[in-house]
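User: Fold this; tokens only.

Assistant: Input:
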Amino acid sequence: MLKVFRSSFVVGFLLGLVNVLPVRAAEKLILTYGSLKISMPVASLKTYAETGQTDESLSPYLNMLSQSNRDQLRALLTKQIPIDPVRTSRFLNSAMGEDVLYRMGKAITIEGNINGKYAIRSAIVQSAFAPGGFTFLGFLEKYPTNLELPGEYVLDLTNEIAIAIDGTKTFVTKMRQWTLEEAKEENNTVDYDKKGDLESMGKFEVKQETWHLEDVNRNRKFYVLVFKPTTYREGLTPVIIFSHGLASRPDDFVARAKHLASYGFVVAMPQHPGSDLQYMQDMFAGYHANIFDVNEFIDRPLDISYVIDELERRNQSEFAGKLDLKRVGAYGHSFGGYTVLSLAGARINFDQLNQSCNNDKFAMFNAASILQCRALALPHQSRDFRDERVVAVIAANPVNRALFGRQEISRIKIPVLIISGSYDPATPPVFEQVGSFNALKSSKKYLLLAEGQAHVDLSVLDGGITSSVESIGDIQLPNPSNLHKYFDSIALAFGEVHVAQNQAYLPYLESAYAVFLSKGNEFKLNLIDQNYAKELNKEIIDFQQKYNMKPW
């Protein structure tokens, strides 16, 4: 887990960059700690990396390392990481890129402990232009001045990493323990083998449509993928609206939508045009200055409400009046998780956001905070996106903690299913989901942890994550088909119980079913509900006290 966290941290910070003028290279790598100052010539490091030979300036320090560690250092210095220098340049010139650089620049400084963000940008992009791509040795050679690593700050960061890893390991261990305990306590007499297989497609044939909508009040055009059964179930037809994540699109979640529709749901998946895949591609092509439009914090929840309005307009003419639009479910992934939690009643808390973005030591290791801190560019006024037609939400890997804080999360009173992944480098559960689940005031709330899940569906949205993680050596990822089985089954059960009000599916929302689903799999599915909120709260308090952390 530690290796996954560190690797995702490094890879996450090497995703974009800037135009550069010729500059002089760093001559020395300087390590400081208090009054202690160690200087290593970059030329000596280069000779060592390329030949294994050391000189008198380097030998005293390398002799302190084991042979294995010296070999790892050489490999790290020369390991080639192919990154696109132009795309990297454009990312690091964006607002999010500037934030990334500023955070990095606290640890990789200019001599004199001056934030090194601009030097870092220059060095990364120039090294990326080299044949074979970026290397850490190339980075040192292209760094435009002497590079200084402030030991106190680096040590503090190392300690924070250890705390984050310990928190993640503790959480995963406890989730597995509680799932098994609750499964035994439930005395579940259901034979899931005989009761029914929720992971397979349902009995309804599914029709897919694409709608092109325009909200003239917002001057906003977007498409919606709509999935509906060709025949209707008895009674009213339940509806679920899906919100995709940053740099994603509705098309990436078609399989999930078809699965729900095959059980008689109507599923609508709108494009969020200011934060979708096309917007990001246009940014890399030079048409936008940022990865997403900051107004998406406002437009995304309004998109969902507009789609519900559109369904109301079409209900009689296209759905024979069968849609139940007084009880709608909302399902969102990542940035979409923020979207559906907004619809459930949470509002951006700018005081909380400002404090988190400027004072949270763990923000360095939480990629989600980079996205959330962009909301500080909005006018600091309260906006309520609560849509009373939304009666239950599924927030998968949601970005939320800095935006909302405990106060706003506690406003949510409707049923909520929060999904998290133990390998998630973008929205780490220990930062983004655990505290939020605990803060929810919903009488029906569920926390689902998929061990090994890495934020996205790697069979559809890999983006290089698989090769990055597997290159670490001893890290394996779960079979994507198992994750599909987990999420499709639990999401269906949640929708049936809390949107369609079909209580026959309650046994599928029990820990015993999570144990059943992951039987025989190395990567387990863990599920707890509000009954374990006190135990989780105790673990959070104990953890905070262990490391002298402020309560959240």
